[in-house]
Specification:
Chain lengths: 112, 116
């Protein structure tokens, strides 16, 4: 059974820092992985969908990598800003179904 | 347009009321989802409709009744709810199944439900 964990659960950094959020999964037989951002009380915003064949995907200051063999994905945020403060979740698909397994999330606070 | 629209944004209901949550997408997506999210927890899957047919029901109590009138609309009918059902209810859609290159999930802003 696929399990997805995110460490750390919470992170507080000063503005301008580069940071890395981690997502680990137990079953490496995945085809893609999606990263989301969620602001308090709001829906999830899709940030990046990274295919297993791509290994990396970039959007602006965000870069996501995927290493299936080690069961890990990282989300790199460059030059963090207070507006980046949110909860970041990763989701791993269960192939052949419509099920996505969500990680527990990392609550990020970027201090001005 | 990558928008999923949910109404209402907030809903307060008593345990004997009947109400509905609505969701709409115009991206031509074939799958639509209902998720439930409690504070500081990840979303939990409730139902999935694929091609307007119920594909997944995650053993959700019958007081929650989904409906997919057409490929763009998804409703969640609520009846005789309990206070512990208070949560953020999220609608999502995707073009294809999880794991497909077009399996990206798009979420709405959610409906905050409070059951008194």
């Amino acid at each position: 059974k696929q399990e997805v964990t995110q460490i750390p659960a919470a992170l507080s950094v000063p503005e301008g820092e580069n940071l890395v959020l981690n997502c680990s999964f137990t079953d490496s037989a995945i085809y893609n992985l999606q990263w989301f951002r969620q602001d308090p009380g709001k829906g999830l915003t899709s940030l990046l969908l990274i295919q297993s064949s791509q290994r990396e995907q970039t959007s602006g200051r965000l870069n996501a990598s995927l290493d299936k063999s080690s069961g890990r994905s990282t989300l790199y945020i460059a030059a963090s800003q207070p507006g980046d403060s949110a909860t970041y979740l990763c989701a791993v698909p269960t192939s052949g179904t419509y099920k996505y397994i969500f990680g527990t999330g990392t609550r990020l606070k970027v201090l001005a | 347009d990558t928008e999923v629209t949910q109404t209402p944004k907030h809903l307060v209901m008593g345990m004997t009321n009947k109400k509905s949550l609505k969701c709409e997408q115009h991206m031509g997506h074939r799958a639509m989802y209902w998720y439930k999210q409690k504070a500081k927890k990840p979303p939990e899957l409730m139902f999935v409709y694929s091609y307007e047919k119920l594909s997944i029901n995650e053993s959700v109590p019958s007081r929650f009744s989904p409906e997919c009138p057409n490929s763009s609309l998804l409703n969640l009918h609520l009846h005789a709810l309990q206070p512990e059902d208070s949560a953020l209810y999220l609608c999502a859609s995707s073009q294809d199944m999880a794991g497909a290159s077009t399996g990206e999930l798009f979420f709405g802003e959610g409906s905050r439900l409070t059951v008194l």
